[in-house]
Amino acid sequence: MKKVCLGLGAAICVIILILTVSSWRNAKPEEPPAEPVNISEEPQDITEDRPQNIPQEEDAEEEPEEEAEPQTMDEDWSSYFGGLTGAAVIYDRAENRYAVYNGELAGTRRSPCSTFKIISSLIGLEQGIILPDDSVRTWSGEMFWNEDWNRDIGFEDAFRTSCVWYFREVIDEIGRETMQKELEKLAYGNCDISDWKGEQNTNNSNRALTGFWIESSLKISPKEQTEVMERIFGENSTYSEETIEILKEVMRLPEEYGTDIPVYGKTGMGKTDGITVDAWFTGFAETSEEPVYFCVYLGQSEERDATSAAARDIAVQIISDYCENSR
């Protein structure tokens, strides 16, 4: 009897040990009680936690297409020039093309001469150096070859009579640093103003009548002239509307030229040792679409002397015919 009890007790101990080990193996860490669910709340929109500013593929903006390079059309405009050596360029922005007569000369850089008064006027107006309502400058009393310059003179008269001493003062007040910056902004030819006083000019030693823009260090081609006109007067111009309107007013050709469209421009002429070597007329014409930009250049000719008046007359004829026949 005693042996049976001992055997039963051992068996019970083994069973208890097995149950204990099994319970220990299956035990899990105690988890915190779950948060009570409020069944009265509306179910949340699971999209609320997503970023809201990620553009969907169908809404992504398309990158603008690069504008094609302008076409260049060679033109035979020799009949307009009457034997004069020259070139002509029309930059038609609306048609994205150049019309060019005498392409080699149209790409040759020459002194801009008084066409640069468009630039000095532009910068002077933007910088507040030329004040339209108070623009008269005092004449020094020096007698110049052009009688229109021998007086106190204001901006409009100085521009239309191409008064060099007036714009020499304006440019000196603009200063080298600002002038260099503005010419680079306009990509104006070679942007070279190193001969600030115009000492390279062999036609004139009077420093009131010389400068880097008159047969000196600054050079620009007829084609580049049209591009600069577009940067100033085109739809992407960065200059103030007030400045542009003032410039247009002084650049507009009078009605006596009989053009059907408004034409704006500036002449220029330069001599070397008394001989005319550069003559210009550059500007733009307003059409029902975008403006058309132009430049006519005349170089030294054997048959007859080039003049800025001749360049102007040729330009007016070419631009009038072009706009009539192509628009």
Question: What does this protein look like?
Answer:
This protein has a single domain, classed as Beta-lactamase (3-Layer(aba) Sandwich), CATH 3.40.710.10. A 6-stranded mixed β-sheet has the order 1-3-2-6-5-4, with helices on both faces. The chain is an alpha+beta fold. It has helices at 2-25, 78-81, 103-106, 117-126, 155-160, 164-174, 176-186, 222-233, 241-251, 308-326; strands at 71-74, 86-92, 97-101, 263-272, 275-285, 292-299. The model is unreliable at 1-52 and 54-60 (pLDDT under 50). Helices cover 34% and strands 14% of the residues. It is built from 10 helices and 6 strands; from the N terminus they run αβαββαααααααβββα.
Distance between the termini: 131 Å
Unreliable spans are 1-52, 54-60
| CATH topology (fold) name | Beta-lactamase
Second rung of CATH, namely the architecture: 3-Layer(aba) Sandwich
Tell the overall outline. Answer: globular
